[in-house]
Amino acid sequence: MNEPHLHAEDTPDAENALFEARLAAGEKIEPKDWMPERYRQQLIRMMSQHAHSEIVGMLPEGNWITRAPNFRRKKALLAKVQDEAGHGLYLYSATETLGISREELIDQLLSGKAKYSSIFNYPTLTWADIGVIGWFVDGAAIVNQTMLAKASYGPYSRAMVRICKEESFHKKQGFEIIAILCRGTEGQRRMAQDAVDRWWWPTLMMFGPPDEASANSEELMRWKVKTRSNDELRQHFVNMTVAQAHSLGLTVPDPDLEYDEATGDWRFGELDWDEFWEVIKGRGPCNRERMEARRRAHEKGAWVREAAAAYAAKRAAESASVTAG
Amino acid sequence: MSSQDHSDTQWPLWEVFVQPRTGAAHEHAGSVHAPDGELALQNARDVYARRGHAVSLWVVPSDQIVASSPSDQGPFFDPAQDKVYRHPSFYRVDRNFE
Predict the structure, then answer these.
(1) Is A89 within 8 Å of B32 when comparing Cβ atoms?
(2) Candidates A110, A291, A319, partner chain B, best to mutate (most B CBs within 10 A)
(3) Are the C-beta atoms of residues B70 and A18 closer than 8 Å to each other?
(4) ipTM value greater than 0.90
(5) Under a CB-based contact definition with an 8 Å cutoff, are residues A7 and A37 in contact?
(6) Which of A126, A265, A311, B3 could form a disulfide with A110 if both were Cys (CB 3.0 to 4.6 A apart)?
(7) A308/B8 touch (CB, cutoff 8 Å), yes or no
């Protein structure tokens, strides 16, 4: 269904020129439209990474559901983690329109072939981490996804619009957790500051490598999948979040942080890119644990998939025999 | 432990259409995998209607949808292109006429 459709008289060059013209005119590309094979492959890579990130992202937060400090917090956290599952499913569904099957996508995650966001390989040590994840990690995701809601591939763009509408609750519930800790005891305030200190730099790494080292950015921007560079998005996030941290009396763990009057930007220090690449390559604090948890969940869920398939087959046989009788 | 379980199935694909409120049209929202229509509806509810913004859902086996082809877009829709008289703006009437 999603194979490129070529007329005998059309050369790939002509198709490609038409494709580029459509992008230049701001048109969206839909699943059955002709697209360069490289565009298709880049989207499959990027969208499936995004889907896997939503799914693996459930693990660090799921860790605190049973230990949420009260029922209101527990309900909110359950709903948030459930949303992440939903977001993963929107994105798998959108990725499948490019002609890859769900089985392949899941297999790429479980075999370690596909990547997911480096941020989910860090541990959630205290309750304040749940607050900071909502505030920082979902905040950074919103910055990225607001841009991607304008992506040139229709199904990706539509999934992003849907996700953005739901993410703002995630960010607010996280900020609320931290704001309340900051108004609490000295110990609670210290716990909030400690979480900020641990999550700040890994969150800035979520935007990906610096522009000069980003292998895919230029191509993705030319194709209007992305409209802003990694560094631009990172700067936007820093400007927004530093002000929010200061409003709570929290500090950001960066001795080089400095307000630039001329540009209105918060200048920040160098990120530890060695750490970033280590985590990407599978040597972060929790990479192994995350993948083991996903594989275990997949295997333990096998009986559900089998039972549902058996039930569907039985129902189909029954209705066939009723029709025949 | 192997992730290469070839007996694994993710079930057939269903397209999901959501009606956000009575009187509105059902709009395509995305897709779900399910072994049958009943579970497709339940999965669609859990994935596309988590916030009560839905009063009705349709699920349709994806392979049952017949769609026009992008490459035929020009000729297929051409008959409608030169019929400006189907639009009210084609007609010149007194400004006060409603």
Answers:
(1) yes
(2) A110
(3) no
(4) no
(5) no
(6) B3
(7) no
